[in-house]
Structure formats: C-alpha cells, structure tokens
C-alpha cells in the first residue's frame, strides 16, 4: 500500500478569516480550530500550494489518495466537504473554483500566516467543532448531509445509523452535528432497562434539551402538545398539571403520536430541526411507534430524525425496530447508513495522527488492522496501549508485536479494568450500577465517601480519557442532569458484568438508598429507577412499593403499555415477598393498576377482567385499601360492559357496604353509578331513577370532575343517564333539562371523555325520540372527539349511530354495513353491553331496505342476545320491529301479537314513552279495539311533557280519526 508522502515545504498561509498550517494539521477560523477530516485537509493543502493555478483531477487524486484506485466521485465528495467547512458557494466561489471537466483552482488571495502553536488532538464537546482526528466515513457523512439538505427543503428524512459497538456511531454523529453549525438540534439517548423501558424516554430527553436552547418551545407545547407538556413537569406548575390531567382524562396513547406530529410540523415552519436519538436498540416500543408515525406522516416538515443502534442486537433480540426498518425501507420512507470497520487506509490515517512514519509502515498498519478487525474503538484502545508519548517507532512496533491483543472489545476492556486502582475500581463499579450516566453525589452517598474525593477521582478518570467523560448536558434551574458518563456504553456494560454478583447486589442496595435520600432532598428520581435497584438488590418489598408508584405514574402519563410491563414484573416479584397484609395491599394496588391499563390497551377482555378479579378477591383481607374506589368502580364498570350484569351488581353491593362502614361518599357514588347502569340495561326504569337521584345527591356536594376513579365527570354522567330515564318515563321536558345541564357542565369542564359521555347520552335520547338528523350530527361530533383524542370507548358507538341515521335518511344498506361492522368490532373487544339494541338497529336498517328475511335473522339474534344477557332496555322496540316484519310478510296475527307484547313490556318497565310508541303502532296499523284507543287517550292526557313531539302528534291524529269514525 503506497501512501502520499508529506510535502517537504508544508503550506502555512492565511486567506480571508482562515489560517492554514499543514505541518501541524491545523485550520483556524478567526483563531478557533475548524473541524476538517484528514482527506479534505490534505486536499486543501494541495490546492493552496498552487494558488490561482488549475490542478487537474488526476493530479489531485495522485496527490491526495496516492496510487490507490478511487473514482472521481470520491474527489467530488471531498471537494463538497471542504466547501461546506469553508462556507464556500460553488456558484459564487470565494476559495475553490470548479474548472468544468478538468479540475479545481484555489482562488483566494493567500498571504503568509502567523506562527501557530501545534494543534492537539482532543475529543470535541457537544456543540463545538470536532477535531481534525476524525477519520474516514466520507460516504457516510455525505449521505447524512444530503438527508439534511432534503429536510431543510421540507422533505422529512428518517435516517438509521447502524453498526456494532465501538464502530464510531456517536463519533460520526458528533462530527456531522459540528459540520452543520448552529442549527436547531434536539438529542436524546436510550438507556438499558431492566424490564419495561420508560415510554418516549429519548424523545422526552430531546424535548428537554431543545427547551433549554429555545424558550419558544414550551408555549408551543402548551398550544399543540399538552400530553407531552405533562411529561416535562418543570415546564408547568402543579395546578396547571392537575388541570391538564383532568382535561385529558381518558384519552388514548394515539393522541400523543398526533400531537408530536403536529408539534414537529409547527416547530419546523420557522427552522429545520435535527432530532437525534441514540442507542435505539434499548428503546421502548412507544418510541419506535412514534418514529413509524412521523415517517409515514404526510405534508411538508423540515425535520431530519437520525437514530443510531447496534444492528446485531436489534436483529438477534427481535426488537420491534427490526421489522420497522425493513418496512420503511421498502416504502422508501427512510434511509439506512451502516458503518463498517476501518479499512487499512483508515487505520493508517488514524495512526498518522500519532506517528507519520508508522502510518507509512505497511507491515505495522496491516498488523494493527488484523489484530483489531478495524473496529475504531478497538484501534484506539490498542494504539493507546502500545504508544507512549516519548517512544520511538521501533519500540512501538516491538510492543505491538509482543502484545497479546484480546479477541474482542470486552476482553480489552477487561484488560483496562485490571489496571484500575482500588479506589478507581470501587468508584467505577458503583457508577456502572447507576447507569451510563451518573451523579457524583449518588456515588458518594452509595460508597459513603467524601464528595470531594469522589469528584477528584472522577476528574482523574476523565483526564485519562479511557473511562469517563463529562456529560453532554448541563444543569438547568428545575432539573438535575448527570454530570458524568461513561465514554462508551460498552465500557460500562463490561465493567458491570465483571463486578461479582454479591458486590453488584450490595451496590444496587446502596445506590437505591442513595437515590432515595437525594429524592427526599428534591432531586427528581423516577420510581421505576428505584424499583430496578431494589429489585436487583433483592429487597422485594421496597421494590414492589416503587413498582406500584412507577405503574401509577405510567398511567398518569398515558402509557398503559408501560404500566402493564411494570406490574407484570412486580407481580412475579411478589412470590419473593413475605406473606402478610402489606404484600396483599401491594398486590391489590398492582393488580388494580394492571386491570385499568389492560382495559385501556386491550378492552374488556380476559386480561383486564382477571387482573381486577385478582385484586377484588384480596380486598376482603384489606377492606380499607386506598385504591378500593378505583378497583370497585373499574371492575363494576368493566363487568357491565361485558354484559356480566349479575356480577356487576354484586360488586356494586360490596362497594355500598364498604362505603357505609367507612363513611366514604366517593365509594358510595361509584356503587350508585354501577347500580344505575345495570338496572337501566335491564329495563327497570323507576329503580334506575332512584339510584341515579341518590348518586346525584352525593356527587353535587363533592363537586369532583374526572379523576383516578371516574374517567368522566360523575355529575355530567348522572344528569345524562337520568335524562334518558326521564324521557322513558314520558317526562321529556325534565329529561331535556337534565341533558342541558350535562352539556353545560361538560362544556365548562373541557374534558374530552366527559364531553364524549354527554354526547353519547344525548344520542340515546334522540334515538328514542326518532330524530335521525340530530343523531347524525351527534354521531359526527362523537367521531371528531374520538379521532382527536384517541378515545377508544366511543370508536364503535359513533359508527353504529351514524349507520342508524343513514338508514333512516334514505341509505339503509350503507347504514346496515356501518352498524354491523361497528358491532362486530365492539364484540371482538369483549363488550356485549347494549348488544341487543345495536342488533335491533341492524334489523331496522334491513327492514328499511325491504329485506324482510335478512331483517328477521338480525332480529332473532337481537332477541337471543337480550335473553342471554337479561337485557330488556330495548325489548319493546325489538318487539315492534318483529311486528313490522310480520306485517310486511302478510302475517297480520303475528304482527298484532308482537305489538301487544311490546305494550305489555313497556308497562312492565314502567316506561310510558315506550308504551305510547307501542300504542300508536297498534292503533295505526292494526284493528285496535276501543279500549286500545282509550288507553292511548289516557296516556296522552297523563303525559303533558310529551306534547309537541312527533309521536304525540300522530297519536292525536289517530284519536281524532277514531272519534270521527
């Protein structure tokens, strides 16, 4: 391998604001070092040595790349890199002029440069220019720069940077960032977790990073991304956060995706943004889902999202990122840059930073490449091992020849571990237990050593440039950043693995205790972090308490999937905890939180039911458990949705008993609501009214809105439920008054779930009043709420009600399709509540389409489901449908029988409105007897609040016709 020889007369000149010193491999701009890789630096020197003269492409290729074969495109890329660093526009060049198809010319007027001190090779701090020690990666840097140019032009760019540990991913990112200058950049790191990772951790870190540099971002978060604002508590007051939680109660995780998409769109209207997330092989699923969402989002966004990961780990561990990267690449929604090990030439470039003569020694370079496989971190480690500051080349070559180079990076790190002093080893072992980043205060407390001495040892390790570096982030007013970090995550990982298990257990206990003390002093420490330490410290009871706290925090931050992961690990750990009341109480907490999370994630299936049932069974031993309200209301509500009405009533009765014993009004309120919901579905109008009126009397003095027990405001819910029962009772004006109170309060509270509940209940009233225009409008309102706030509860209902309205408004086939699809999705989720009514909608749509046979099939299914569930709320309407189908088929006797059964059922339910509906049908389409007309007249007279309705207008016309006859 032949390499270009150093020029006997190295260039030393200044031009405009630059100073160039070839001998010391240094380029300065206004006295400050400029980041420039060796190849573009050599290219600049060759051009500057012949100012004003054309230097042909062949001459440049020979001078810079020696006699190696490289294409013209490599030269073009190097010229482009050089121009970017110099800030030179090829269309209006100040320094380098292109001579078409021939070569390049250095056109800046040079003059002798002042004497400059030798440049030292250092690792750049974040936000500074990287040193000239950056080696190779020309093609990779060019790909990143082209992606940034696309992003700057409004075309979002998602870029994967893949490679093995030590391959130089972070170094490349640092170099690329420095080459862009003062752009808007947000950076976050994934960290290795024990169990479920904190959702969106690297993105939240990046947002926090951006908030520090851009004071306009918090206001934009408040405007378009309130769920993300909640994840950054130092940006708002406790009161603001509580208000936000109430406002956002019940929303789904999908809302966070849409908010982030909107935030990025809005933010990048003013400036392009580079979002960097490193070590994505440790990422949580939520972050991967967010990348997927952003990559597929349409529209102009000046965003480049650059993520690094270890390729082998992503593939071997079947990480969700593995399939995503393939999908996005197939659809051309991302670009992947894979870093390979250094070539021999790049190893020689690296050696040249330390010794020009050794870099020319092909035998030495080849031996070094073979022993390290070209892995940059390995190369760096071996070089530092064999090269002393005063050693000559012969000594270095002999040392390399005699060095037993370990087989892999882990082994060479082990070699470094053996060279540590006792105090350094102890400190680094404790730091490795803390994580890749750590606070010196935490290590000091864990080791019970003087803070100053620990800090001194950390600084000593930083100066050695092997183990530690100062953290990229700095402290800000309301957050505490970790001031030290391991130079490479692999160093921390190997040190942790090599620490004896018994010592690791002890250190986790000590670190956990230290973090508890810091937390008490106001340092923000996540409960999940404390849970992990005490779990690994084999202190299950302490770990379980923190797992419960972390799981509850995950729910508060719209992360039910994380909550499930935390509770699953904790419930396994329960087997190691001693039996007793405290363990039972923790199990109730964990199982309740798991039930709530499973309900949000999977619906009312067995996952949620089993979790709630586990907690419910244990409640007998811990009846005063602080989470009993959430458990009993949540379990009762879930059972009601599943159609398990008998068990739901049992849970409500248990809640009522406990509330009486403890004088707990909130628990009594939960009991009353469940009782009201179940009795309503079973068609007991007066009983339902009694429970709802009792509940309202409890709720109004409490004045509570949505909280951890009630997903929607109880008063809104109760006014709406009572309105439905009043309408069924023929008290239409009173019902509408209660519905208006529900709407007014829902508007004032501005809680999406509460507003959804109010709209849901109003739809039920309008269906019973037979107003398809109003039902269509309300269904569309529900659809908007569901889409905007990801409210899983209303996703199916809004569609079947839209179908009901469509069928009545002249599109029965389309209406039927909507109803049936929504119903099937609803039942797949395990929800059977109200199933007989929805199937009745489907039967009615088919009847309106003139398909009596198909309508009969749907109706029979509706009647069967209603009988199976004990659900009678819609039975009078189903019987009227049966009468209509029989009448259209010419079976008049069967039709008349069905109508009379409907009248009897309405009377049994104490529902005058439904009785009125059935009597109008009887008198309108059948040979009604005089006593039937008399019953209709009496009912109209006894229901003054129904005056003015379309149904009463029909009744009066029938009575008038009967009187005339």
TrEMBL record:
One of its GO terms (cellular component) is cytoplasm. Signal peptide: none annotated. One of its GO terms (molecular function) is DNA binding. InterPro entries: AAA_16, OmpR/PhoB-type_DNA-bd, P-loop_NTPase, Sig_transdc_resp-reg_C-effctor, TPR-like_helical_dom_sf, WH-like_DNA-bd_sf. PROSITE patterns: OMPR_PHOB (PS51755). Gene3D superfamilies: P-loop containing nucleotide triphosphate hydrolases (3.40.50.300), Tetratricopeptide repeat domain (1.25.40.10), Winged helix-like DNA-binding domain superfamily/Winged helix DNA-binding domain (1.10.10.10). Residues 10-108 bind DNA. SMART domains: Trans_reg_C. This is Transcriptional regulator.
């Amino acid at each position: 391998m032949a390499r270009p020889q150093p020029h006997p007369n190295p260039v030393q000149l200044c031009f405009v604001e630059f100073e160039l010193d070839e001998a010391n491999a240094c380029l300065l701009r206004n006295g400050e070092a400029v980041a420039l890789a060796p190849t573009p630096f050599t290219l600049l020197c060759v051009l500057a040595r012949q100012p004003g003269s054309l230097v042909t492409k062949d001459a440049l290729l020979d001078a810079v790349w020696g006699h190696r074969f490289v294409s013209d495109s490599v030269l073009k890329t190097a010229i482009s890199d050089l121009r970017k660093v110099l800030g030179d526009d090829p269309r209006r060049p100040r320094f380098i002029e292109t001579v078409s198809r021939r070569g390049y010319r250095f056109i800046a007027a040079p003059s002798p440069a002042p004497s400059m001190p030798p440049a030292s090779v250092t690792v750049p701090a974040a936000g500074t220019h990287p040193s000239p020690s950056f080696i190779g990666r020309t093609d990779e840097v060019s790909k990143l720069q082209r992606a940034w140019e696309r992003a700057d032009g409004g075309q979002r760019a998602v870029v994967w940077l893949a490679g093995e540990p030590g391959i130089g991913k972070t170094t490349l990112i640092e170099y690329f960032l420095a080459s862009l200058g003062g752009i808007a950049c947000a950076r976050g790191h994934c960290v290795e977790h024990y169990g479920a990772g904190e959702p969106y951790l690297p993105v939240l870190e990046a947002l926090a990073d951006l908030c520090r540099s851009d004071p306009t971002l918090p206001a934009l978060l408040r405007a378009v991304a309130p769920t993300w604002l909640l994840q950054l508590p130092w940006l708002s007051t406790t009161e603001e956060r509580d208000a936000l939680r109430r406002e956002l109660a019940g929303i789904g995780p999908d809302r966070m995706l849409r908010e982030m998409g909107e935030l990025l769109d809005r933010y990048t209207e003013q400036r392009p943004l580079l979002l960097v997330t490193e070590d994505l092989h440790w990422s949580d699923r939520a972050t991967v889902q967010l990348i997927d969402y952003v990559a597929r989002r349409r529209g102009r966004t000046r965003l480049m999202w650059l993520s690094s990961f270890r390729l082998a780990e992503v593939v071997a561990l079947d990480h969700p990122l593995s399939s995503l990267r393939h999908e996005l690449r197939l659809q051309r929604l991302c670009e992947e840059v894979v870093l390979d090990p250094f070539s021999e030439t790049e190893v020689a470039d690296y050696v040249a930073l330390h010794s020009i003569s050794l870099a020319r020694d092909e035998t030495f370079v080849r031996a070094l490449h073979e022993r390290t496989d070209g892995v940059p971190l390995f190369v760096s480690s071996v070089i530092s091992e064999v090269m002393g500051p005063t050693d000559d080349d012969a000594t270095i070559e002999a040392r390399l020849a005699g060095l037993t180079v370990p087989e892999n990076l882990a082994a060479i790190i082990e070699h470094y571990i053996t060279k540590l002093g006792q105090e350094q080893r102890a400190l680094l072992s404790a730091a490795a237990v803390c994580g890749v980043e750590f606070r010196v205060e935490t290590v000091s407390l864990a080791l019970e050593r003087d803070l100053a001495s620990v800090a001194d040892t950390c600084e000593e390790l930083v100066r050695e440039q092997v183990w530690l570096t100062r953290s990229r982030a700095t402290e800000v007013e309301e957050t505490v950043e970790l001031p030290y970090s391991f130079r490479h995550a692999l160093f921390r990982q190997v040190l942790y693995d090599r620490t004896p298990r018994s010592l690791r257990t002890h250190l986790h206990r000590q670190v956990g205790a230290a973090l508890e003390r810091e937390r008490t002093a106001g340092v923000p420490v996540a409960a999940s972090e404390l849970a992990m330490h005490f779990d690994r410290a084999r202190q299950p009871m302490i770990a379980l308490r923190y797992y419960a706290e972390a799981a509850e925090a995950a729910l508060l931050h719209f992360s039910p999937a994380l909550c499930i992961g935390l509770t699953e690990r904790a419930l396994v750990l329960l087997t190691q905890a001693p039996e007793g009341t405290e363990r039972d109480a923790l199990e109730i907490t964990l199982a309740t939180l798991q039930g709530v999370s499973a309900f949000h994630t999977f619906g009312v299936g067995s996952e949620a039911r089993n979790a709630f049932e586990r907690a419910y069974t244990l409640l007998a031993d811990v009846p005063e458990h602080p989470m009993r309200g959430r458990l009993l209301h949540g379990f009762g509500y879930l059972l009601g949705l599943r159609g398990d009405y008998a068990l739901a009533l049992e849970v409500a009765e248990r809640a009522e008993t406990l509330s009486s014993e403890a004088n707990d009004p909130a628990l009594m309120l939960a009991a009353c609501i469940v009782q009201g919901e179940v009795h309503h579905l079973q068609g007991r109008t007066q009983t339902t009214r009694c429970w709802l009126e009792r509940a309202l009397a409890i709720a109004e003095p409490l004045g509570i809105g949505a909280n951890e027990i009630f997903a929607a405001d109880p008063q809104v819910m109760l006014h709406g439920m009572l309105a439905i029962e009043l309408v069924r009772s023929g008290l239409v004006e009173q019902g509408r008054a209660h519905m208006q109170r529900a709407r007014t309060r829902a508007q004032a509270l501005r809680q999406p779930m509460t507003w959804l509940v109010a709209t849901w209940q109003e739809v039920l009233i309008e269906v019973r009043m037979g107003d398809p225009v109003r039902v269509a409008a309300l269904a569309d309102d529900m659809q908007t709420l569901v889409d905007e706030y990801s409210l899983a509860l209303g996703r199916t209902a809004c569609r079947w009600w839209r179908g009901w309205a469509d069928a009545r408004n002249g599109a029965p086939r389309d209406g039927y399709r909507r109803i049936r699809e929504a119903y099937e999705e609803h039942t797949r989720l395990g929800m059977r509540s109200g199933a007989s009514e929805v199937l009745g909608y489907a039967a009615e749509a088919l009847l309106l389409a003139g398909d009596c046979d198909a309508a009969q099939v749907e109706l029979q299914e509706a009647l069967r489901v209603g009988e199976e569930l004990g659900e009678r709320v819609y039975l009078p309407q189903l019987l009227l449908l049966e009468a209509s189908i029989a009448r259209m088929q010419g079976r008049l006797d069967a039709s008349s029988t069905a109508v009379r059964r409907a009248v009897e059922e309405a009377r049994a339910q104490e529902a005058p409105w439904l009785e009125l509906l059935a009597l109008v049908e009887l008198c309108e389409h059948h040979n009604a007897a005089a006593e039937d007309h008399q019953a209709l007249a009496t009912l109209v007279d006894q229901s003054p609040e129904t005056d003015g309705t379309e149904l009463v207008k029909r009744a009066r016309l029938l009575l008038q016709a009967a009187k005339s006859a």
